[in-house]
Automatic annotation (TrEMBL):
Coiled coil: none annotated. It catalyses: (2E)-4-hydroxy-3-methylbut-2-enyl diphosphate + 2 oxidized [2Fe-2S]-[ferredoxin] + H2O = 2-C-methyl-D-erythritol 2,4-cyclic diphosphate + 2 reduced [2Fe-2S]-[ferredoxin] + H(+). Pfam families: GcpE (PF04551), GcpE_C (PF26540). Residues 793-881 form the IspG C-terminal domain. NCBIfam families: ispG_gcpE. Belongs to the IspG family. Residues 126-398 form the IspG TIM-barrel domain. Residues 1-17 form the signal peptide. The gene is GcpE. This is 4-hydroxy-3-methylbut-2-en-1-yl diphosphate synthase (ferredoxin), chloroplastic. Residues 421-442 are annotated as: Disordered. It comes from the Eukaryota. Pathway: Isoprenoid biosynthesis; isopentenyl diphosphate biosynthesis via DXP pathway; isopentenyl diphosphate from 1-deoxy-D-xylulose 5-phosphate: step 5/6.
Amino acid sequence: MSLVKRIILFMVTFCYYAEIKKNTVGKISYYNIIFVRAKKNFKKSMHQFPLNSKRNSNFEGTKRNHNIVKYESRKRRHFFLNSRVGEKKGQSEIKRKIIKDEDKYNIIKDIKKYCECTKKYKRLPTREVTIGNVKIGNYNNIAIQTMTNCDTRNIEECVNQIKKCKDLGADMVRLTVQGVQEAEASYHIKEKLLSENITIPLVADIHFNPKIALMAAEVYEKIRVNPGNFVDGRKKWINKVYKKKEFEEGKLFIKEKFVPLIEKCKRLNRAIRIGTNHGSLSSRILSYYGDTPLGMIESAFEFSDLCIENKFYNIVFSMKASNAYVMIQSYRLLVAKQYERDKNSLIFPMHLGVTEAGFGANGRIKSYLGIGSLLYDGIGDTIRISLTEDPWDELAPCKKLIENLKKRIFYTDKKEEASYSVMKKQNKEGPNYSRDTPNNDNDVTVMKSSLSREIQSCSPEKKEEAIIYKSKENSTVHSDTDVYQTIEHWNSNYLNFEENFRDFNNIVKNRVDKKVKSDVLHEECTVGNVVTVKELEDSLQIFKDLNIELDQNGNLKKGAKTTDIIIIDKFETLTDSANKTVKKLIEIGLHVLVQHQPQNIDIVKKLKINDSSSSYNNNIIFYTHLENMDNILEYYKDEMQKNNSKGYALILNGKENIKMVEKIKYLDPAPLFLLLRSDTIFEHVLVTRRVNEIIHSLGINVPYIHYVDIHSTYYEDILVNASLYVGTCLIDLMGDGLIINVTNYSSAATNTDTVANAQKDEKQQISSRVSLNSFLTLNILQDTRIRLFKTDYIACPSCGRTLFNIQETTKKIMKLTGHLKGVKIAIMGCIVNGIGEMADAHFGYVGSAPKKVDLYYGKEIVERNVPEEEACDKLIELIKKHNKWQDP
């Protein structure tokens, strides 16, 4: 650096130092940070200068203005997000908002209504869109999609993959079209398919190049465009603060490039998917809204408004993110905004997906959680589960998700038609999907939406006859008479509530007594398990299943994954060997829940640990049903006075009347927590929403833990049921813990479809029923971002752009880094799904050229063109350099 430049830098620093110090003593500084990059010898050094924001525009040496400024205050990280709130003489003023780190994506203030109803199933009415020979929206079947992962120029391989996907149930297949060669190859692919009479609609995936989109429209039935890079080019992460004039000029540029595609698609009867991705928003949008759900919506609306302006309505929306919570909130906000825009017009259909979900159970759980939560409330017209696996492997999970959604329970209003949940072509088959997927559950499968319009509208004396006729058509495990009675029971007794506390903007979570949290419950979210006496007799296996660790001296200890509480089934049959295991678990710090009954009380009183019965009893918590609270209350008044117990727990099934629940508020001593155990998992979301509303409205400050029984025998069914019906509750912060009890593992283990469908690494983790419970509980809490226990991966599903073997690479990286709690690693096949999609990641592993990899720290590239065989080692070195590494 020259002497002159050094002097200038020194003078700039000195001139503003006094002013900054004067204005920042005792308060927060509202100054932008300007980074000035020195040349040549100091190319990599960054010099930070806090400058007054009014002078930024006059500082010619500015490389970039950061509109997100982090600072530390009382050991808590906050963000300043710039948002434009007004205009004055062509200039836009900037107002800074302080937002907590964990609330970064909660800056949604406009969700008043995001679906038709949250208590009764009513599918969101959307416009009908035609994609080749497939119609979506307007109550048509939910369509299943996947994407080829071979080079589009490889015509033969593309055709083979498309044919296989079609045979296995895909409704449409997407291909990447990144250049002229791929566009030309697409003609030959289409020609070859038509020669074999295969007419499955094809979707072109377009990034960066509007001209290629015009070429693709000649062949493909639908064109997917990404608003973040369709006209803005490659992402450079320049955080420029746009003036109003500059922002509007950007819209004109979009119009110039996008309208020709609209006109062509309109002429050729093509469809367009406006597919926004959380990680690839344009710098214009980031400047105004940040990388938030609101930014995703506004980005999509810039493109959809042009379609509407040109009277083109054959469009589909998508709001994908690798973070399931962000994805759910984005779709909810999208619906809410469309409701506000035109209350008399239908909403455009939506394609659902959690992008870069990963592979195996991890990818499935995250997708079931994100997609299933929206489908549960009637949102969604097409879906794709993006797995880092072969394209056809994505189809079975899609079918399984839709099939299991048929079993969910809503209540039915007799005055309304049941047809709101039934699509035009499916009045006899169920709410969402017409494919024949076998039902392998032993649960009472209650489907309100399987009732046809005739059953709802006929007279009471003829209802039973109609239902019996209907049950012959559907031939489900249980008769529709049982279905109808269950729904009527719900309708008349339990659904007289309105949701006021789950407001979708600033989700309310009960404030729990800190003493209860520290003494019994985990500070983030409690992990529970259900064990039998027989399972306790094998102490080594149970320690492994409950994720108990060893310290340096070989002593047992609790770790990040260790279960917090266990429920012992049939405690009255406790044997000596099982008792020894229980004592060890209590010594480690686990709490044991035992049903409150005379026989169990006598057993507990006789037990001792370390020659002290009080310390043993202190970690044993009795529980009983709410209707039996008087008996347990009398017992605990004496025991708590003797300091022999921390307290008790009560079980609810969610159907108790409000007066009964209100008694909890006045209990003395109050219960430590509640166990919410629905009669069947298929009604658990509805039960939770009711209970959550009641306890908030009554001001009951008692935490509640989800306790669900899963009677399924197939691995995929277990994954779906656990993720969908519990994850939907936890994603809205309803609940303070989770206990999953898979009841039929022994029979499932002998079934070739159960554990055989799990990945090799997963089989090692689910070697028993208890370990399967732990595996499900921990992964659901991880994907809801409530309690992190391992590395979080954003793994590209791969496509024709992928520059290395992403499936094998992902497995290798996961094996090396899977123990890093709270660390996020993005593994991307190319630049499209690289820096753009990995907005949340700490570290990035991105394909840059064939068998070459770029490594990122956050959004900054740190090493270019690393040979693939060296990249994993370099990644670990990078993690260590930034103090994120922990020895396994």
